[in-house]
Amino acid sequence: MSKMNIWSKDQVSELRPDVMYKIADLATMTPSELNDTFMPVKTMLDEQELGGHTKPLPHTRFDLTDIRDAFEFMQEAKHLGKIVIAMPEPGKNNLSGRECNATLFNDNATYLITGGFGGIGLEVAKWMSRNGAMHILLCGRSPPTKEAEEQINEIRSRGVHVMAQQCDVGNFEACRLLIEEINKERYDPVSNTTFRQSPPLRGIMHAAGALADGTLDVQTWERFEAVFNAKVRGSWNLHQLTLGLPHPLEHFVMFSSLAALFGSIAQSNHCSGNYYLDSLAHYRNSIGLPGATINWGQWGQVGVAANLNIPGLMPFTVVQGLAALENTLKTNKTQIAVCEGDVGLGRKAFPSAKQLLSELEECKADLSKELDGEVFWKEYDVTETREQKYDVVRKYIKTILRLNLKLDKNEEIDDHVSFAEIGMDSLMMVEMKNGLQMSVGKRVKISIASVKDCKTVAQLSLRLVDLISGKVEIPPPTREELRDLIIEDSILPSHISADAASIKNFKKLSEISTVLVSGATGTLGPYVVYEILKQPSVQKVYCLMRENKIFSPLERFRRIFKDKKLLQFVDLNKIDFVIGDVSEPNLGMSQFDYERLAAEVEAVFHLAVKSSLDEFYAKSDDPKHSRNINVSGMKNILTFSVEERLKYVYNASTMIAETNVDETGRFWEDWPIEGEFDNQANSSYPISKYVCDLLLTQAVERGVPCKSFRIPNIGGDSIHHGNFQILDSHLMIRMLAYMYMGMMPAQNLPMSIIPVDLCAKFTIELFFNEETGFEMFNVANPSIFDEREFDEVALEFGVHIQVLEPDEFIERAKKLDINDDVIQIVRIALARENEKEYMEDNLPNVYVKWIQGDKDVFLSKKLCKYLPNEYPTRMDSSLEILKRDLQYARDTGIFDKFGIKYSDST
């Protein structure tokens, strides 16, 4: 804190003539000078830390918020070495380039979650651990279930101290012992000092509760007691027992219910118990204590109401719920209601709440007025600088966000917080894009593709300024430029080659024990992981996953595998996760982690892909462009396959990356031929995968053991049906678009659809088969369905589709309302428009054979040879698979979600 006691150079030289000594005055340094000064030091320390040579000086750390404790600590002379005060600097970058953010919770405090073993309590615990909490006490009346224990251990695996204790907080004595145990000081006779086993209690999340529903004529006081025990007695006990704590609470949050505001049939005890929580929060605030109550609507994924159908309400996601909780803590509001619903329907379902909901509708109407396009352009057109334009656009984006997230019009939204963190899901992003389009009108076209990589208000504002200024839209390359780019991208780097030593030490496929999987949580990935784990030799599967600030890799893995009904069949002890990105050097890992993994892994299963059909294949600075992800990703995977040791490579290709037939008239089942796409339409996904196949061809020629699988459209699994990411399927998106529009083009297109589980099973069996070579396989369903007949299929689901000539279809589709909520799927359905002139003059050879009536054109000779008992006999026809997937879409509400009008009578 001062410049006293700094040694001079002469003093240091006298003591240690062998060291270099320099005095750095931080107050006078520019950011650039600071970086130049400290980066070499940081690099040296990082290197020494890996070797265990660097040890920090003795110190005790306090957050700035606990500076009073720090001074008392120093006054009592308890410290060894220095006392360090940590100062949060929101929005500032440290020397590593990472943003330094203040966390919501103190890592030197204990936080109590009542009802902590339930679904909501555990999600809150995970979220708190991601936001700075390092000591969490979970309590519940009943002991944790096996699944709850697994989730608790998962939180502990992050280094968080999680305590689990059975306790009825409605029992005053039990609650007193619980609180005392946290704050109890213990005496150490050896050092003659006192210490705490856990840091002091600084926050409470009161999520405990019970239901005992019944209409008034059957209600009893015992039923009220069952509900009031946690809600009334529990909250009052916690209030009373924390009044005299040596350290004041930071948070006292009570989980109430929307029922306390609107009322709820047969839940008089539940309504009154939660109303008590609301009243207690206001009382605590009135006497200067922290207190907040959240009137929760319906949690859609966890909690007792997860699977209920509540009139006027729609379930919200865990992410949205946690975003609301974070908002409550940051805004210091005493009471907030969180729900997703139809206000009009809610007024009918809850007559008692008519006045309150009317006010909400008025608030929404006020926000809607702020989206007036004329007002937007009046403000925008008078601006002179880029900064002024940015401010106008930013204001409108925040208005739309408040409207979509049901926030107050004065609610502050951070420019740099990610949309996902504030509760925006994919459909809400589409709604926001449509709101922006409504503001700017016809002067600017805003496509999903042009803004989909923008993750924050700041990024989106800059992008829209560029769009309005005409700086973003880049014309596609000419045919000659496209050919040159394909040739350039298809050159395999010279370092990707198998040397004699690596081939000599190569393991057999049946001996592989450690593998790396990219795209493990995609459409096909979970089933591939499941099939890999069935191999007796495999003991470890590393899943390469991108960083996600909301969910840990294990959480994402568990959710997706549970949704696909695979979790119970997967041994999680054999699964490990690596944060990275195939499109980045070193697969997005540190050099140390990359080299360690490269030395351990014996086979790579590459399924990560971006399958956007509405992008041109072109040079782009966008790291999320499909060319950058797919082609760069393939080169990085092949580089990894020859680093440290030679590895087998499994690659998931696509049927639309090939157009030829062989001499017998069958679909080409070999490595691709150069120049195939010279006269085909410019669509980034098929071209990028074609380039990847060319790279694999060269890798095999250089001794890298690769097997690649051309995969058709993927459908639901053969057991549960429809159990896949249906909206990640371009085929399904196109069919849903036709059903939504009520029209389709009269064009013959072959549909080959394979169940996702059989696709994984076939490819893994072929991969581990020692008899198969390092070659290409066509994993196609030979029973083809003609898209031209889709109108008849749609009719079976109560949807009438008019079949039009392609030109008329395109003209009508262009006239669709630009503000339509499902414009995204319509645009993707129209992605073939840019292919029209090329498709007419250069119809692929395989299409020609199929149109001529060759029913076996897609039959794989290799699969018939190596899987004679399974292929193609185990598969239903593509038509039957399509019908099952459409049935799944209707049953799960996807038809309704996208506004598809259908009749139940057919």
UniProtKB/TrEMBL annotation:
Keyword Metal-binding: no
Residues covered by the Carrier domain: 391-468
Keyword annotations of the record: Phosphopantetheine, Phosphoprotein
GO molecular function, one term: fatty acid synthase activity
Alphabetized SUPFAM superfamilies for the sequence: ACP-like, NAD(P)-binding Rossmann-fold domains
Highest taxon of source: Eukaryota
Keyword Phosphoprotein appears in the UniProt entry: yes
InterPro entries assigned to the protein according to its UniProt record, in alphabetical order: ACP-like_sf (IPR036736), FAR_NAD-bd (IPR013120), KR_dom (IPR057326), NAD(P)-bd_dom_sf (IPR036291), PKS_KR (IPR013968), PKS_NRPS_Biosynth_Enz (IPR050091), PP-bd_ACP (IPR009081)
GO biological process, one term: fatty acid biosynthetic process
Gene Ontology cellular-component terms listed: cytoplasm; plasma membrane
Protein name in the entry: Phthiocerol synthesis polyketide synthase type I PpsC
Classification of source organism: Eukaryota, Metazoa, Ecdysozoa, Arthropoda, Hexapoda
